Automatic annotation (TrEMBL):
Identification of the protein by name: Quinolinate synthase
Subcellular location: Cytoplasm
GO cellular component term of the entry, any: cytosol
Organism: Derxia gummosa DSM 723
Main location: cytoplasm
UniProt cofactor(s): [4Fe-4S] cluster
Keyword 4Fe-4S: yes
Example GO molecular function: 4 iron, 4 sulfur cluster binding
BP-aspect Gene Ontology terms: 'de novo' NAD+ biosynthetic process from L-aspartate
Pathway: Cofactor biosynthesis; NAD(+) biosynthesis; quinolinate from iminoaspartate: step 1/1
Alphabetical keyword list: 4Fe-4S, Cytoplasm, Iron, Iron-sulfur, Metal-binding, Pyridine nucleotide biosynthesis, Transferase
Enzyme Commission number(s): 2.5.1.72
Length: 386
């Protein structure tokens, strides 16, 4: 079944001749996602075993994002793959001996894997699985925005296409973006940031950097409601609030910990608290519950009391990754027929995009650790590396 999805994207520039001090305002656009049919317990078990067998027969490794179906997360770990954020997925695939990478996530994640592993085959269960941040930052319009502000250092979030990364000076993740912008700000650099305005605004507030923000947003995180979160906190007075910085400022302001997916999981594990309210895609709760058994996790609210879904925080494109699609892909790969599943990035474009990614990796290596710990409400660093 196809689901129509509305998301925000900035309006095109009107042939700007000079610096654009105010980014184009968002407009509403539409996209679609395929909604998979629910599976019976017997069918799930059958497909999981079939996927295990197929992965074992091929020189392939499964890497999955925290936001995909729990069966795929478990399968990745059971078969020697990994469950991680987008960059760690790509790094794991790059460093793994397998010559075929199966990426369970959204398209920009497959592209990032291909950029870091250009000689490997990168396959995805569904190439139509995309991202509102990626859709909301078309390369032609983004290039025009950059060209209208040539005095700014271009920093883009990992949730962008290979073409947008190729136009950037730096690519960052949510776990190290703040630290890199702080570094650039100390050098006197002015920043052009894309695509997520909430993450950019959070980094701007924390660093004081001069940042011009592309007006994109994640359709999942943008729906969290500050007022509803405040009411939920009253119901759970002892709970710590874990928030991804793609969320609106009114939500971030109530957080005990602000961080990337891996940082929020680490916070749940290392905190003395036993109850948490979590403001990010609710699929992450599967990993949190496994990593911190005995602790209680509550989904942050995305809608008011009159809504049919109190917490709807699950990416419809991440949901397109399922066991049936994975098995279909692996069966096709056995016969060599995977044009509908294979990620290809123009080699020249991939090399350009890799420059911006490598700058981030080199920065992290030079600081002798992985990307920055999470930020806590007390203003100190959080619970360890991403």
């Amino acid at each position: 079944m196809l689901q129509t999805i509305e998301f925000e994207r900035p309006a095109p520039l009107d042939n700007a001749d000079g610096p654009v001090c105010v980014p184009p305002a968002p407009i509403v656009a539409q996209a679609w996602a395929r909604v998979p049919e629910p599976l019976s317990t017997e069918r799930r078990q059958e497909l999981r075993q079939r996927a295990r067998d197929l992965l074992a027969r091929r020189d392939a490794v499964l890497v999955a994002h925290y936001y995909v179906d729990s069966d795929l997360q478990d399968l990745a770990e059971e078969t020697g793959g990994c469950v991680a954020d987008s960059l760690e997925m790509a790094r794991f695939g790059r460093d793994h001996a397998a010559q075929t990478l199966i990426v369970a996530g959204v398209r920009f994640m497959g592209e990032t894997s291909k950029i870091l592993s250009p000689d490997k085959r990168v396959l995805m269960p569904d190439l139509d699985a995309t991202c509102s941040l990626d859709l909301g930052c078309p390369v032609d319009e983004f290039t025009a925005f950059c060209d209208a502000n040539p005095d700014r250092t271009v920093v883009v979030y990992a949730n962008t296409s290979a073409a947008v990364k190729a136009r950037a000076d730096w690519t960052v993740t949510s776990s190290i973006g703040l630290e890199i912008v702080k570094h650039l700000h100390a050098q006197g650099k002015k920043i052009l940031w894309a695509p997520d305005r909430h993450l950019g605004g959070y980094i701007q507030q924390q660093t004081g950097a001069d940042m011009l923000l592309w007006q994109g947003s994640c359709l999942v995180h943008d729906e969290f409601k500050g007022v509803e979160l405040e009411l939920l906190r009253q119901e759970h007075p002892g709970a710590k609030v874990l928030v991804h910085p793609e969320s609106p400022a009114a939500v971030v302001a109530q957080a005990d910990v602000v961080g990337s997916t891996s940082q929020l999981i680490a916070a749940a594990v290392k905190s003395d608290a036993t109850e948490f309210i979590v403001a990010t895609d609710k699929a992450i709760l599967h990993k949190m519950r496994a990593a911190a058994p005995g602790k209680h996790f509550v989904e942050a609210p995305t809608a008011g009391n009159s809504a049919t879904c109190k917490s709807c925080a699950h990416c419809p494109w991440m949901a397109m990754n399922g066991l049936e699609g994975l098995v279909r892909l692996l069966e096709a790969a056995e016969h060599g027929a995977v044009p509908d599943h294979e990620i290809n990035v123009d080699p020249a474009l991939g090399r350009e995009a890799k420059v911006a990614i490598d700058r981030m990796l080199d920065f992290a290596a030079a600081h002798a650790r992985k990307p920055a710990p999470a930020f806590t409400s007390e203003g100190s660093q959080g619970f360890g590396p991403a």
